[in-house]
Design brief:
Layout lengths: L1 H24 L8 H22 L3 H6 L1 H23 L2 H9 L5 E2 L2 H4 L13 H13 L2 H4 L2 E3 L4 E5 L2 E10 L2 H7 L4 E8 L5 E10 L11 H8 L9 E4 L5 E12 L3 E12 L5 E5 L13 H13 L4 H5 L6 E3 L4 E5 L2 E10 L5 E2 L1 E6 L5 E4 L3 E2 L1 H11 L6 E2 L3 E5 L2 E9 L5 E8 L6 E4 L2 H13 L11 E15 L2 E8 L7 E4 L14 E7 L5 E8 L2
Parallel strand pairs: 1-16, 25-27
Antiparallel strand pairs: 2-4, 3-4, 4-5, 5-6, 7-8, 8-9, 9-10, 11-13, 12-13, 13-15, 14-17, 15-16, 18-20, 19-20, 20-21, 21-22, 23-24, 23-26, 24-25, 26-27
Helix pairs in contact: 1-2, 2-4
Length: 533
């Protein structure tokens, strides 16, 4: 009777310990999850340990116990299967499959990346956004003692603006206990172009977050709803009504047990109610910006660049091997967020052979073959212009400035505050312009690369779209100018110098065109030209 009770107690103890282990570690019940294999090994070891404590009292008994031998053999078998699965899923054997996980499309820089206005350029990096967020939180007297600012700061497009958004978190376990019923009352948004920082208060608090405990802890909440899903990095985003959501990408393994990770599905979890909606990646709502983490996209492109000629070539000869540069940034294009990074050879030189843009929602990848300076060379060039002030450059953005691929950088002092701005020509990185404002910096830059005749957009710049009614040529100071009149705009004549807008030769009467211009007499000065075909 006592022996039977002892067995029941041992089984109950093993189940309780396994349940606690699962609740704390929350592994996915999925053979593709390394955590699941660890959970299996932990349970097997626990069962053997409880059996051994009750039945075995000497080394001789261990050697004679058939159950212990079978248990140890089973553990060894699981470890061997895991090791083989890891090897058979690795690039060593599957280099070609890894290389094809992402398929870049070679594209045209000036066609894909339009020149954006000053109020759309993200002037801040994440570190600067954190300074503004902490400063805003410090001014909220009624909240600062109970909450802190999370360090998430997701980069999103919100209502057509480049924005970083981050939730508040409980300041301590005690603060969680006293505030958990109402939840987290607000999140912070930072406009990366205007630096406008806003603390948005919610009528119903955020109840599911990374700072919760027990069942409202976001990862545990997701695990109990989707026990087989393996989640990648979560991001905090807003829908078009400002409702906070957790964007939860689900890993998909395309090669063997553990290799070739991409994203197969995405779960959207309402941070207030905990309600979840599961989508295939291709069906994900367009307001979602970050399905593929930036680190994963960079890793996929590195597989594509380094494994062209097999795994061992990527280690030894390295013929034709390319990799991304150390660092990346974000560009907002057509309401999507794209990861930008340079592409360089694996030899470690200080130049790029081109760069890539990778869409964080769709994984679409575009490669631009534009050789030039590596980002850190551009940063050094900008810092060299203000070395007497000791300013440090942020990792650059890639912009289209009058058809020229251009690095845009902020220069910060030791306190992390932005003091000046710099523009560095990608292909001629000795051309460095420094200005106290973006417009001043651009004026110096354009004068540097185009001469004193460069035309700048400003607050008076207007835009018109129409069909070309008349088109004529003239020569001024040896340079060809095209003069255009649009239908229903007979009162405006647009002066387009071929030296600044070579693409104008592709247009003819009857074509639709969008022109940004500054009004003038007798002709309007053109700032930019875009086809509407």
């Amino acid at each position: 009777m006592l022996r039977r009770k002892g067995k029941i107690f041992a089984v109950i103890a093993a189940l309780i310990i396994a349940a606690v282990y699962y609740y704390v570690t929350i592994p996915a019940i999925n053979i593709h999850s390394s955590g699941f294999w660890g959970f299996i090994l932990a349970v097997m070891f626990l069962v053997l340990l409880l059996y051994g404590v009750r039945r075995v009292h000497s080394v001789a008994e261990i050697r004679q116990s058939r159950i212990l031998k079978l248990g140890i053999a089973a553990i060894a078998l699981v470890i061997i299967i895991y090791a083989l699965g890891t090897l058979l899923s690795s690039p060593v054997i599957n280099a070609k499959k890894y290389q094809q996980l992402i398929e870049p499309e070679t594209s045209n820089f000036t066609e894909d990346i339009e020149q954006i206005s000053f109020d759309q350029i993200p002037l801040l990096d994440k570190d600067s956004a954190q300074l503004l967020g902490n400063r805003k939180m410090g001014s909220m007297v009624e909240m600062v003692s109970q909450f802190e600012v999370s360090d998430i700061y997701s980069q999103i497009n919100y209502l057509g603006r480049p924005v970083r958004v981050t939730p508040l978190v409980y300041a301590s376990p005690i603060k969680w206990f006293t505030n958990m019923r109402e939840g987290i009352p607000a999140y912070i948004t930072i406009d990366m172009a205007t630096q406008n920082t806003e603390l948005v208060k919610l009528s119903d608090g955020i109840r599911y977050s990374q700072s919760e405990y027990f069942n409202r802890y976001i990862y545990r909440h997701l695990r109990f709803k989707y026990p087989t899903y393996i989640f990648d990095q979560l991001s905090f985003e807003l829908d078009e009504e400002g409702t906070p959501y957790w964007i939860c990408p689900v890993k998909k393994f395309n090669i063997g047990l553990f290799g070739g990770q991409t994203i197969g599905r995405v779960v959207l979890c309402n941070a207030v109610t905990g309600e979840c909606t599961d989508y295939k990646v291709e069906d994900c709502p367009t307001w979602v910006d970050r399905v593929y983490p930036a680190d994963l996209l960079v890793q996929l492109y590195n597989y594509h660049g380094t494994l062209k000629n097999g795994f061992f070539n990527s280690i030894l000869g390295q013929k034709g091997c390319l990799k991304t540069t150390e660092g990346f940034n974000y560009l907002a294009i057509n309401d999507d967020v794209w990861v930008y990074t340079g592409v360089t050879s694996v030899s470690g030189d200080r130049s790029n052979v081109g760069f890539v843009l990778m869409n964080q929602r769709t994984k679409e990848t575009k490669y631009y073959e534009i050789p030039g300076a590596e980002e850190y060379s551009a940063m050094d060039s900008a810092e060299g212009q203000v070395q007497n002030l000791g300013y440090r450059a942020t990792f650059p953005l890639l912009l289209n400035i009058s058809g020229e691929p251009t690095y845009f950088l902020a220069l910060k002092d030791n306190a992390g505050l932005v003091k000046k701005y710099a523009m560095v020509n990608v292909q001629k990185y000795q051309n460095v312009a420094i200005g106290d404002t973006v417009s001043a910096c651009q004026k110096i830059y354009l004068t540097m690369i185009k001469g004193s005749s460069a035309v700048l957009s400003d607050e008076n710049t207007k835009t018109v779209t129409g069909t070309i009614k008349k088109m004529a040529q003239g020569v001024i100071d040896g340079n060809t100018h095209y003069y255009i009149v649009l239908e229903n705009r007979d009162n405006l004549i647009f002066d387009i110098p071929i030296t600044d807008f070579l693409e104008i030769v592709r247009y003819s009467e009857g074509d639709r065109i969008t022109i940004a211009y500054n009004e003038g007499t007798p002709a309007c000065t053109v700032v930019s030209v875009k086809s509407e075909k």
